[in-house]
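Researcher: Here's a chain I'd like modeled. Treat it as a single chain, no partners, no ligands.
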Amino acid sequence: METFGLIGVWAYLVAATVAEVIVFYIFPASTLVNTSIGVLAASKAVLIVLYFMHLRYEPRSVQILIIPPAFLVVVLVLTMVFSLAH
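Model: Modeled as a single isolated chain. Structure tokens:
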């Protein structure tokens, strides 16, 4: 693995975490704040899977196997979130 790539990923993870904390404590609670924290958390999760779980270096066929479970997780989380409103 290239060192610069791992350092860049690590730097992004640190910066995204700091941004999440700043957004949470500085701005009042709103849908925009929740969405921005969710997007940052999702991007961090993708980077962790790609680089630290080595999915980036797997063949394309193995990478494609990840898509259906990830889609199912998104659907289940959205269903859970929308069911909480009732």
